[in-house]
């Protein structure tokens, strides 16, 4: 069983040396457990946050343990009555070929859909965009929605959904090429580059009536700049803060809190997608319908081979990805 293990807590930017490649014995499924062959691994910004010693919504990944990761696989052997060999499942399978996981921690998936869609548009990524935008942001036609990490997995879907809702949509991204992709291919109204020293000015010009909803994937200084442009009564959807994950010295701030929140009557609200687990089917149906109607595309950045998992995460944190980063392990 090939595995990537986390050997030390990264001090600043993630490095390949923080991991070690190992060959372990094939695990056995214990009582209530299911042995799963891992086929498609999800690479998520949150993976980096889980390596920090500070607990997130999950405890830190154990040192020298298998790196935690979400993925899709096929049941090989099962000691759980609800799952049979051959079933397709999703869950925290880890950065490894085979995982023995309690059956109750797995979710059975229909075998007829492509695994790539199940991990991306119909997976945590699409549902994070869906529930964050519609439950927390609640866009109305004509409002201005800004989304950071706008060319990433979650952000690229958020922007397209906000267009479906009739909003003016502006993306914040890390390169001119990504700006062109958002406006040229995904239907965003405008995009600005956060590496541009005049980003705040460019954002102001792109949002002439101010910002009603900010879907925040990055936190830090970009959040601070956006807060000054929010309209009265605006909503900030706090989805994540990737600018603070891969650094030993998280940016201070944002400044302007709480004064700006008071004066502008702003609401900042966080969420974790699993809060909406009971309603996943509703989001899947809506997202699949929009994709089938040609109104939504979920871009995939697919890497081949488990050996490339650390580099895939390093690339995501450096903004080298467009859309959802996934690693094909088998199948
Ligand atoms: P993405 O595919 O969006 O990749 C991360 C992107 O962040 C990069 O492509 C990069 O793009 C951008 N980025 C990296 N560093 C910075 C920085 N310092 N400043 C600005 N942008 C930066 O990853 P995910 O879709 O996996 O995650 C997006 C966000 O969603 C994360 O914050 C994650 O934690 C959150 N999330 C939250 C969930 C929840 O339940 N609340 C569930 C799933 C994800 P660029 O080139 O534009 O810089």
TrEMBL record:
E.C. number(s) listed in UniProt: 1.-.-.-
Listed Pfam families: ADH_N_2, ADH_zinc_N
Chain ranges of the Enoyl reductase (ER) domain: 14-327
Keywords attached to this entry: Oxidoreductase
SMART domains tied to this protein: PKS_ER
CDD domains for the chain: PGDH
GO molecular function, one term: oxidoreductase activity
InterPro entries: ADH-like_C (IPR013149), ADH_N_2 (IPR041694), ER (IPR020843), GroES-like_sf (IPR011032), MDR_fam (IPR045010), NAD(P)-bd_dom_sf (IPR036291)
SUPFAM superfamilies the record matches: GroES-like (SSF50129), NAD(P)-binding Rossmann-fold domains (SSF51735)
Protein name from the UniProt record: NADP-dependent oxidoreductase
Organism: Marinibaculum pumilum
